[in-house]
Write a structure and sequence with these properties.
2 copies of one chain form a homodimer. Chain A is an alpha+beta fold. Chain A is 44% helix and 21% strand. Chain A contains 17 helices and 15 strands. In chain A, the strands form 4 sheets. A 5-stranded mixed β-sheet of chain A has the order 1-2-5-4-3, sandwiched between helices. Chain A has a 4-stranded antiparallel β-sheet with strand order 10-11-9-15, sandwiched between helices. A 3-stranded mixed β-sheet of chain A has the order 6-7-8, covered by helices on one side. In chain A, strand 7 (233-237) and strand 8 form a beta hairpin. In chain A, helix 7 (183-193) crosses helix 8. The longest helix of chain A is centred in the first third of the chain and has 24 residues, at 20-43. Chain A is globular, with a radius of gyration of 27 Å. At the A-B interface, helix 10, strand 12, helix 13, strand 13 and strand 14 of A face helix 10, strand 12, helix 13, strand 13 and strand 14 of B.
Chain lengths: 473, 473
């Protein structure tokens, strides 16, 4: 007999809820950092309210995964430039001695690693609700909103279950690489559906374009919302009716969340929360698998570029889409494409084609025989070097069989990417690296890369299996 | 300088109009056969009115191409069985000593070859207009209609020009093999547009579904006509408003006629009337051409079957369409397909594919993740032998990469045609021959067949050039 759903949830909570020791350690660390930032701000003469925000403030964090968010709220009289410079200077002093990086995607912040815990120091403006200046100004309001709601009804266990579930099925995280659900969005779902299982039941019935309007800002006007936001999932922010909290959620992550919810409710298992790690294949396995599937896998590798992860992944995904389009435009049947990066030294775009070699000729559908264009078409193609056969009349149109400009996908990519590929849609910050360091590998040539790069080997293994880790037979 | 269009028409008429000698010979022969049929009918006690019909009666035949049609009009009191048996017995006696064949497509008739001329003896019922019993009963009315109109205005030169043009561009003939324009249809076009050039000018502006209602039976109700007939071209029969004289005209012949009309008017040349014969390639040319186009040509050959040409070609075309569909259903990219037969010993279906070999696996698009079918899909494919990768979620659907059932087109055809191919759409009268005598050849294997069969070599040459013989660079 399978364990009951309640029993599984109990066991998961056991591991997902921080124990008193861990909780104490994190709270002490958070308070220590809050004070250090406050002291440094004062020293720098910066009028700043320093608060702990995020899941630590709300007590909704997962055991072993605490992120400490320290917010510096400054007056709007401090210009944008000083927000970025002065505040980050303060932050750097506060974390002196620990390793840190400057992050800048929508807004600038400092990420440090302190005693094994990730700490984000995030400057923002202290504003009235609705009078947002920088992108992070809403976040303290989010924290307050959730804290207030959780004070009315303690749903922290339910939130931790949902976060753990989302983490397990791979849809947790609003960063571009993932395109999934933020912690705040996860909390809103539980507040809305009142429990973990209630959420999964509701999600099982979601369709693309589902709308949740927690505070009923648009009561009875859901069509208006869809026009306003146009996203796979729309969750109106309770602190800002013009913002979709789920804007980052991609079609694929939404689909996976719906699929996983349905499957979990049908056949509950712990593996949805803690799926097995992917164990990379051996070189011989890779060779065997690649041969057995009988398709062609082409890999583009190029050196890392110096941008923050959100920018990098945005550029990788955009380039992937463009090049997939390029291959299709040349008639290659692209079955699937994927991107991988170690975010430092190496980027990879992978394309799987039915075949990297096409027939030397193709059928070309010309204009209708009764159209104006017919004469030009004949002028151009009758007796032309490239015309292999025809023109003939079929279905009321002129047709020819013509030589392909390029029948080899590797050659096509090599040619189009020779100077970086900007004109075929390689994103701006990647083009230079593509120009100078591009390597194109096909099929078994890829296997050597796996031997020298365990991260890539794990990615490729997952790609070849092609199945979410939580999905069982 | 190109010769003027008028000069070309004059020259063509010169050769297309029968000279007095030929005319006298044909008229004498026609009258002789009419009398022989009348005498034999009387001997057999058959009450029959015997008349010359068709283009000889109307004096619209092309020099060198006279067909003598002898009609036996009998009373409807003679039952269907006696029409078929007694009349054909009479016909056989009338042509005794000359070679003849019994023909039966829509209606039975006798075809004989007398002194180098084809003679058709066609029994039909003598009926009032509109009270048709057999399919041939309208024909004497067609002859009368055209004769009467030509008595008002002699357009015989114009008709001969159009017939010669249609013959030249390959659209003349209502038989199934051609799917083109009958002599009667050609005459109606000239009667309608008043001249050869007037016809070509009008045709240049035709679109698919063009309607001509010579006698204005449906004045102002052309939409009604389209619903009634639904054909690429609709010409309402002046002697029967329920019949489309152009019912036999296929989309491709209509398209070619429109295309040729436009091109001829733009750049008049004699070659539209007398295009050069196709000169078959040498074996080495065939090999070179096949290699150069870089596609795969598959040939199905099987022994002749004992049916009249109209039935044979109907069955060949139907089988060709079905098997093209079969190949496409298995993902093969069929560029073009064609049929050939010597109408006696050998039939050929030809398929040109981008490639006869597909990738061993293909992407299979499954049901939406939020559908009822999702559970069954996963049940069936997760961990299945045939599943190469996945299932994964993409565009809101489950997807897998799965092994193809058949990735080789020759194997597919061999397997599906093993017992005749009735269930994959091989037409009934061909299946037995396919079962017992099918050969499948690919690419250069075809070349040997060309060496031993000049008729096929000519067909294949035309196919590979793929361009109407009248189309010039």
């Amino acid at each position: 007999m399978n364990p009951s759903i309640e029993r599984i949830c109990e066991q998961i909570l056991e591991t997902a809820t921080p124990k008193p020791d861990e909780r104490k350690r994190v709270q002490r660390l958070a308070e220590k950092l809050r004070q250090r930032v406050a002291v440094e701000a004062e020293r720098a003469g910066l009028e700043a309210e320093v608060k702990i925000g995020g899941s630590v403030a709300k007590d909704t964090w997962l055991s072993g995964e605490a992120d400490i968010d320290v917010f510096m709220l400054v007056p709007t009289s401090l210009g944008r430039e000083r927000l970025e410079k002065d505040c980050l200077d303060v932050a750097k002093k506060a974390v002196e001695g620990w390793p840190w990086t400057e992050r800048y995607a929508e807004h600038p912040y400092l990420e440090a690693h302190v005693e094994g815990t990730r700490v984000n120091v995030v400057p923002c403006y202290r504003v009235k609700r609705g009078e947002w200046v920088s992108a992070a100004d809403r976040t303290p309001f989010h924290t307050e909103y959730v804290k207030k709601k959780l004070a009315e009804k303690n749903l922290r266990d339910e939130i931790r279950l949902l976060k753990r579930f989302m983490r397990g099925v791979g849809v947790y995280g609003a960063e571009i690489r993932i395109g999934g659900f933020s912690g705040y969005l996860c909390e809103l779902l539980v507040l809305n559906y009142r429990s973990f299982l209630g959420t999964l039941k509701a999600v099982s019935g979601w369709r693309r374009g589902h709308v949740i309007d927690v505070e009923s800002f648009y009561r009875g006007r859901s069509e208006e919302i869809r026009k306003l936001f146009d996203a796979p999932l729309i969750v109106v922010d309770p602190v800002d009716k013009n913002r979709n909290v789920a804007a980052a959620v991609s079609d694929d992550r939404l689909g996976e969340f719906i699929a996983a919810s349905r499957l979990f409710l049908g056949k509950p298992r712990e593996t949805f929360f803690y799926p097995p790690e992917t164990v990379p294949f051996e070189a011989s396995d890779f060779r065997e698998r690649l041969r057995a599937r009988g398709t062609d896998i082409i890999l583009m590798t190029f050196d890392g570029v110096d941008v923050v992860p959100d920018v990098l992944w945005g550029q990788l995904y955009r380039s992937l889409r463009s090049l997939k389009g390029l291959l299709r435009q040349y008639d290659f049947s692209v079955m699937r494409a994927s991107a991988w990066s170690d975010e430092k030294t190496m980027n990879v775009l992978l394309f799987e084609l039915e075949s990297k070699d096409l027939s030397a000729s193709r059928k070309h559908v010309g204009p209708p025989v009764d159209s104006k264009e017919a004469a030009n078409f004949l002028e151009k193609h009758v007796g032309a070097e490239s015309t292999v056969s025809g023109p003939w009349v079929e279905d009321g149109r002129w047709m020819i069989e013509t030589k392909r400009k390029c029948a080899d996908a590797v050659l096509l990519l090599r040619e189009k990417l020779r100077v970086g590929g900007r004109d075929v849609g390689v994103a701006s910050k990647l083009a230079e690296s593509v120009r100078t360091s591009l390597k194109l590998l096909a099929n078994e040539e890829i296997v050597d890369l796996c031997s020298s790069n365990p991260g890539f080997a794990k990615f490729l293994t997952g790609y070849l299996i092609g199945r979410p880790r939580w999905l069982h037979s």
